[in-house]
Write a structure and sequence with these properties.
Strand content: 35-45%
Number of domains: 2
Order of helices and strands: EEHHEEEEEEEEEEEEEEE
Low-confidence stretches: 62-66, 69-73, 76-82
Largest sheet: 7 strands, mixed
Structural class: mainly beta
Strand order of the largest sheet: 6-8-10-15-16-12-13
Length: 228
């Protein structure tokens, strides 16, 4: 089945609050070439993903001299050469004290840049289309007041995996902490939240998140994971 061409004035999809950056004429050129490639591939079950990618990128390379940019993905020089991850700064959101993350914001880097804490709530991730949704969180400010909370659904969500806690007040002694419950607490002290603290969360089952990361804190490790 061929991919439909875009028409001028047709609404383009958005990813959360981020606009999809694309030039319609260039994208249509790409779609035309991709349709030719799809028609020529035939039985794709006998091809590996690498072979399919090579076939597609060979067609892409003939579109023109300039790169095609779609939401930060550059397609150029016979391959995918650069990806720019969308970034959300919590201080730039309309309600920075509480921020809800939806499936449309998957593969986004969220900067935890409020020293006085944030309540981040992961909305229901209970559909098959949400499996594999992935979020990264990075502290770019030391949390000094209140707590930044990463919370799944109360009474329904759960967190598995682990983080490494680094006690900066004790020669960077490290402790591996097994994830549990449905809430991660970063207080800037003994549960992490100093600059450089980094967490990745991936939806692996309905409302179940796999977590990994490194948390910089101060003092013997406290209750990073709790149940709300």
């Amino acid at each position: 089945m061929a991919i439909k061409l875009l028409t001028k004035g047709e609404a383009l999809p958005k990813k959360g609050k981020k606009t999809l950056i694309v030039y319609i004429d260039r994208l249509n050129d790409f779609i035309k070439e991709l349709n030719k490639t799809i028609d020529g591939i035939g039985d794709t079950e006998s091809l590996t993903p690498v072979q399919i990618n090579n076939l597609i990128t060979q067609k892409i390379s003939g579109v023109g001299e300039d790169a095609l940019e779609i939401d930060g993905l550059f397609i150029k020089d016979n391959g995918f050469t650069q990806y720019r991850k969308p970034i959300i700064k919590i201080t730039d959101t309309a309600t920075p004290a509480t921020y809800d993350l939806a499936n449309s914001e998957s593969n986004t880097l969220i900067l935890l840049d409020r020293f006085n804490g944030t309540n981040l709530r992961l909305n229901p991730f209970s559909a098959d289309t949400t499996l594999g949704a992935r979020f990264e969180f990075l502290c770019t400010e030391d949390i000094t007041v209140n707590t930044t909370i990463l919370r799944t659904l109360t009474g329904a969500g759960s967190i598995i995996g682990h983080v490494v806690y680094v006690d900066t007040g004790n020669s960077n002694a490290q402790t591996i902490v097994r994830a549990s419950g449905n809430q991660i607490n970063l207080n800037g002290g003994n549960t992490g939240g100093l600059i450089g603290s980094h967490i990745e969360m991936t939806v692996v089952e309905n409302n179940k998140f796999y977590v990994k990361g490194t948390l910089f804190g101060n003092g013997a490790v406290g209750s990073i994971f709790t149940t709300q």
